[in-house]
Amino acid sequence: MSAELQAITGADIKLIADGKGIFDIRVDGHLIYSKYQTGRFPKPGEVTALMKPRT
């Protein structure tokens, strides 16, 4: 997923491993996707669609 996001946005993508099963995606400090809130991992293209209004 990081490669998909970097290819589309050109952003510097960082994976921060914590081992607690949390999968959140933040853009400029704003939460745009949370596995905890949705109860699932994002579908392919879902996160990039959420990012487009911010790019």
Descriptive overview:
The structure is a single chain. This protein has 55 residues and is an alpha+beta fold. The protein has one domain (2-54). The chain has three helices and two strands, in the order αββαα. The chain has a two-stranded antiparallel sheet. The longest helix has 8 residues, at 2-9. The model has no long low-confidence stretch (mean pLDDT 82).
What is the structure about, briefly put?
With 55 residues, the protein is of the alpha+beta class. It has 3 helices and 2 strands, in the order H-E-E-H-H. The mean pLDDT is 82.
Task: Provide key terms for this protein.
3 helices; 16% strand; single chain; globular; 55 residues; 33% helix; alpha+beta; two-stranded antiparallel sheet
Write the layout of secondary structure elements.
Layout (H helix, E strand, L loop, with lengths): L1 H8 L14 E4 L2 E5 H4 L7 H6 L4
Antiparallel strand pairs: 1-2
Low-confidence stretches: none
In percent, how much strand structure appears in the residues? 15-25%
Structural class: alpha+beta
Which strands sit side by side, in order, in the main sheet?
1-2
Count of discrete alpha- or pi-helical segments spanning 4 or more residues: 3
Average pLDDT confidence is 82
Topology order in helix (H) and strand (E) letters: HEEHH
Separation of the first and last Cα atoms: 17 Å
Pfam family, one: Rdx
Keywords: Redox-active center
Protein name: SelT/SelW/SelH family protein
Organism: SAR86 cluster bacterium
